[in-house]
Amino acid sequence: MQKLRKVTDLVEPIYVMEGAGVLLRRSIASPSLDYLDPFLLFDHFGSQNPTDYLAGFPMHPHRGIETVTYMLDGQVEHKDSIGNSGTIGQGDVQWMTSGSGILHEEMPKEPDEGIMEGFQLWVNLPAKLKMTAPRYQEFKASKIPEVQTDDGAVVKIIAGQFHGVEGPVTEIFVDPEYLDVSIPTGSSFEQPIKQGHTAFAYVFEGEGIFGDFEFNSLNKGTSVPATYLAVFSDGDAVRVLAPQGVRFLLISGKPLKEPIARYGPFVMNTPEEIQQALEDLQNNTFVK
Ligand code: FE2
Questions:
Q1: φ, ψ for residue 119, nearest 5 deg
Q2: Average pLDDT estimate for 255-272
Q3: CATH code linked to domain 7-282
Q4: Ligand 1 centroid to 218 CA: how many Å?
Q5: Ligand 1: distance of its center to the CA of 67 in Å?
Q6: What is the whole-number distance in angstroms between the Cα of residue 208 and the centre of ligand 1?
Q7: Residues 6+ apart with CB under 8 A from 104
Q8: Which one, of 20, 80, 12, lies nearest residue 230 by Cα?
């Protein structure tokens, strides 16, 4: 019998200032949720006020992790130390494997109209891949498949699978699933998630009921409103009911169960490896 996952923790993001002065809502790498193996950080950025983000993230290094940027609205311009540059626009995703190291800048642009909004997730790399060659997987919105269920839910598949349709981001060590799910009023949604994988949902519009509830039973599940992050217990599926409509990211991946040493944009296994990253930066040997 299938075992539905329950909500074990609800995290309210805290506001933090990052980069040269960007206001973010942070829910992983926060005081209440330091690390959700293999996920190291989760930020929701977005504002109607350009002074909250225009300072951006000038040149900075990363080593030992993957950074995943998914834009809901607006644009972020990026360029890096290995010659890549471009714009991540509405609905686009960039899955960047820093590996041994890159230096890059990420600069949000003021839109002609509307707001600038999106998410950044940091995914850990296992010890054996921390010093791998840097790699990008970048996809425009048009390359991200969308499936509509009979029940009216609309699911964008960035990584992993939904109803047999596979997302464009592949060959990531933690075997991630990254879905953007919109459920209309009164509809429901269910998705298998591999046993043993860590899973969370981040609700950013409306409110949903998540958990191991049965329809028309006394078990009412857990109500999760925007903007909260819900952490799930182990199990093999997530069930969601949307009495008033909800939109959320559903993200899962295989935990690494390795020691971590983190220092800002570097996440390694030992303090000595962090020290090495700092020395490499100082000696101009950071980018391999
Ligand atoms: Fe970065």
A1: -135, 145
A2: 97
A3: 2.60.120.10
A4: 45
A5: 7
A6: 31
A7: 59, 60, 62, 78, 79, 80, 81, 96
A8: 12
Write down the domain spans for the chain: 7-282
CA 118 to mean position of chain CA atoms: 10
How remote is the CA of residue 124 from the centroid of ligand 1, in Å? 14
Which tokens belong to 70? 């998914």
Instruction: Render pLDDT for 163-219 as a digit per residue (tens, 0 to 9).
Output: 999 999 999 999 999 999 999 999 999 999 999 999 999 999 999 999 988 776 767
- Cα 119–Cα 63–Cα 98 angle in degrees, nearest 5: 60
Residue 191: closest CA among 216, 170, 163: 163
Assigned token pair, 162: 């939904």
Q: Calculate how far, in angstroms, residue 104's C-alpha sits from the geometric centre of ligand 1.
A: 6
Distance of CA 108 from the midpoint of ligand 1 (Å):
12
List phi, psi (to 5°) of 131. Answer: -105, 25
Q: How far is the CA of 137 from the centre of ligand 1 (A)?
A: 15
Pairing of the two strands 228-232 and 198-210: antiparallel
Distance 105 CA to ligand 1 centre (A): 7
Torsion of CA 241, 252, 176, 93, to 10 degrees: 60
0.90 surpassed by pTM: yes
Centre of ligand 1 to C-alpha 220, Å, is 40
**CA–CA gap between residue 175 and residue 197 (Å, rounded):** 9
